[in-house]
Amino acid sequence: MSKESLCLKVPKIYGEKTIILADELEINNRELEIQKDADFVYIPLLRRPRENELTSFTKQVSELQLLTRLFRERKKRAKTFVELLEGRLTPHELASLPRAVDIVGDIAIIEIPQELKRHGKIIGEAVLQLHTNVRTVLSKAGAVSGTYRTREFTVIAGEQRMVTVHREHGCKYYVDVAKVYFSPRLSYEHKRIASLVQEGETVVDLFAGVGPFAVLIARNHQNVMVHAVDVNPFAVELLKKNLRLNRVENRVYPILGDAREIARNRLGGVADRVIMNLPEKAIEYVDAACKTLKTSDGIIHFYSFVKAEEKPEILQLRFTKAVENCGRKAEKILSVRTVRETAPHEWQVALDAKIH
């Protein structure tokens, strides 16, 4: 579709300079396409330039004309699923479209409601259109389950694969989304904990996964020791690759095994700080965290799920009791913060505590 507009006609050699100046003066009409011929560039305008603005142009461009011309309208890029899928889904189906997409590397993960499963392919194609850096779109085909906290996925668009390289805070991570647990929504937590670590500390990451806490801590601190523990052999193999990829093998020590057994047999009394990112079962491993702490004071970063009807004080009391059962004392709750919503009326909460 074409539209008539006032424009600036300038020789091609002045085209880029004129476009930049029109942008600076906020008179470039970006809803219309700039035109070119063999000798000239035609830049559509939102309004007629003022006298002082024309003076600015003529100082930089020796040959300049104001004229009216027909321009093609730019194709507007859709910004949401609703815009892309209007006309292909019913109004009721459009209202049911998922709003959140998790992006791990160049893989997008989406949860499609049951009533939209038959439209999975066109929804997946819409994700590819909206996120041009994405090469694969996965639909969740089950809940997180099992010892390794994994879930099943179905490829609904793009390349048939589950492995990618995820970038976060200057670090890179090999991730196999089908074999290990990884959430890009914890990006802020990775950075927050890394910023709290002090030089000279020994950190134990009891449920390390592919290493988003451990690697970032080691990248940000030259004089630290991080023991990264995980029971999932696939996660530990990827963790080792990620240590080499980020050049922190000399500060992070990967350990395959159950957190409680490793704490008891190999890491007793070594830690200044313990990370417990296993919200489903972290409360069951408070004894392991306390076992790894030095006999002096230490810090535990504890993660758990909390229902909407539960007050934060209930989680604090539960955690404090678990620490006391280990012969320690939660001397001070340093912070309690909501990390993210994980289900309707359920949130993941981070609790930082100083343990005596």
Describe the structure.
By secondary structure, the chain is an alpha/beta fold. It has 3 domains: 2-72, Alpha-Beta Plaits; 81-161, Met-10+ protein-like domains (GMP Synthetase, Chain A, domain 3, 2-Layer Sandwich); 182-355, Rossmann fold, CATH 3.40.50. The protein has 11 helices and 17 strands. The protein has helices spanning 15-24, 51-60, 81-85, 91-95, 120-130, 187-196, 212-220, 233-245, 259-265, 286-292, 312-324, and strands at 2-11, 35-36, 40-44, 65-72, 102-104, 107-110, 136-140, 153-158, 163-168, 171-176, 202-205, 225-230, 252-256, 273-276, 298-307, 330-343, 346-355. It has a 7-stranded mixed sheet, with helices on both faces. Helix 6 (187-196) crosses helix 7 (212-220) and helix 9 (259-265) packs parallel to helix 10 (286-292). The termini are far apart. The model has no long low-confidence stretch (mean pLDDT 92).
Give the SSE map.
Blueprint: E1 2-11, H1 15-24, E2 35-36, E3 40-44, H2 51-60, E4 65-72, H3 81-85, H4 91-95, E5 102-104, E6 107-110, H5 120-130, E7 136-140, E8 153-158, E9 163-168, E10 171-176, H6 187-196, E11 202-205, H7 212-220, E12 225-230, H8 233-245, E13 252-256, H9 259-265, E14 273-276, H10 286-292, E15 298-307, H11 312-324, E16 330-343, E17 346-355
Helix pairs in contact: 6-7, 9-10
